[in-house]
Amino acid sequence: MMVFQVFIVAAAVSFLGSIPPGTLNILVLQLSLEKKLYAALRFALAVALVEYPYVWIATQFEQMITSSTIVQQNFKLLGATVMTAIGIFSLWSSRNPSTFSGRFQNSGFRRGLVLSILNPQAIPWWIGMTAYLKAEGWISLETSLQLHSYLLGTAIGSLILLILISILANRISSKFQQSKVIRLLPGVILLGLGLIAMIDYFLI
């Protein structure tokens, strides 16, 4: 019974936690609005696959990392740097397309895999969330089956949200397909979020 509860809780938390604008869901949205549904779905699958080992890392180092503010701050800085860099690359490739940038921008699974690995913001988030869920008694990760049920739930939750974003955005994509704004907007948003996160880091 606890194994099923752990899966449901993890999937629900992962789904809700993936809703706020971030590097990966914005890029899925962009692919779908550009009428590249299959690329967006492959991107979503890659994100879910990377989520599994990243959440495993979070569960393994939960106690050690939550007690170190230095580690938490460095994760924030890394996430802000990656988001800013991807935003700049997205804007540059939209205005100055090359063969490599074009193939990378249009790819699905490979692009999702690379950007997910370079974007480990899920780790500190899941460290805090795992600690909270355990403290509240909503989950137990005492057995291997419970742990992998938790990891699978986190991957499934984020995958479901990204698939929903892909399908819904694809349905309205005909209105935006030729718009230059759509090609530039994700880069602008990511650059803005990255700079805000970086300013927040240095102010702290």
Describe this structure in words.
It is built from ten helices and no strands. With 204 residues, the protein is mainly α. The protein has one domain. α3 packs across α8. The longest helix has 28 residues. The protein starts with a helix and ends with a helix.
Q: What characteristics describe this protein?
A:
204 residues, mainly alpha, 81% helix
* Radius of gyration of CA atoms, rounded to a whole number: 18 Å
**Overall body shape:** globular
Mean pLDDT, all residues: 75
Strand content: under 5%
Largest sheet: none
Q: Tell me the number of helical segments per DSSP (H or I, 4 or more residues long).
A: 10
Structure summary, number of beta strands: 0
Low-pLDDT residue intervals, each spanning 5 or more residues = 97-102
Q: Give the topology string: H per helix, E per strand.
A: HHHHHHHHHH
Structural class: mainly alpha
Number of domains: 1
Task: Give the % helix.
Answer: over 70%
CA-to-CA gap between the ends?
A: 43 Å
Lay out the secondary structure.
Blueprint: H1 2-17, H2 23-33, H3 37-60, H4 62-66, H5 69-95, H6 99-106, H7 109-117, H8 122-135, H9 144-171, H10 180-203
Q: What is the compact description of this entry?
A:
This protein has 10 helices and no strands. It has one domain. The termini are far apart.
